[in-house]
Amino acid sequence: MLPASIPSPDPVWSQFSLGPLTIHTYALCLLAGIVAAAWITDRRLRARGAAPGIAIDIAMWAVPIGIVGARIYHVLTHLGDFTGPGVDPWAWVRIWEGGNALFGSLLGGALGVWIGCRMSGLRFWSFADALAPGLLVAQAIGRLGNYVNQELFGLPTTLPWGLEIRSDAPMFPAGTPEGTLFHPLFLYEMIWNLIGVAVLLLIERRVVRRNDALLADGGTPGAGLRWGRMFGLYLIWYGLGRSWLESIRIDPTSDAPLGIPANIWTSGIAILLGIGILVVQGRRHPEPELSVYVPGREPEDEDAEAGDAGAEAKKPAGSEKAGDADGADADADASPVDPAGSR
Which pick of 75, 194, 236, 320 has the fewest CB atoms within 10 Å? Predict the structure, then answer.
């Protein structure tokens, strides 16, 4: 290990065996991120009136489609690695070796979320708003997989936290002297994402407090960070951070239209899309979000129905008839022919 540097894990840490199975650490990091995001999103949705476990149902659509989208995006932006003579066609699908683009997972995952929301009756933007903080947490956890694979680092640096990369690592830049330290982009992005979680939640909390104050004073609360606004802030935050990180990233196999890396283009689109969501949804939905469900698709309150059924079952025999008799007596007392009633 070089003095004042961050060592990369030994390549043997990238995978281990369980009987006949080979478990890849990269895949475990992705899985851990998915679980964390699903748990956070489910808690946020339940606090807004959604049925427990609905985030898991939607994740069953979003995760596989997101993984496919991530791989397609990576392949399209690194065609030199996957085309040409002697290239193994199975390399296109070996996602455990790394190469899953986050922007591609967002595009594919959005399609999966849309399908899942259509199936469950949940509003798409309601799910996206609940997902935003959890998505940043998942991305932070997933970057540990890039660290293990030694595949996400920046330009050479002499800073004390420079990252060591083995000279035989696939992404080690050709012609670079052995022992060169690099910016640890995986760590930068982890820190940026976790700060983003705190920022988004802080903004959300302040908006909620302001709406509560308006309601207490008899005013009309606004929409807050609902109707997609929270997700719009996520896109802006992540796009800003990613565009800077990509500007110092070493990725010699990435295609660069007009000399600008593809991920910087996509980061700019993400920022513009986030701003667009804030503006458009702000005009379309200035009112508070009363339900996370599409009107008419709200789940039935099974607990209330069970309670009503239990109350009916506990009524003493003959109570219904007695009730009817009491009702009849009351009607007779209020009859128009009753002298007292006619006064």
Answer: 320
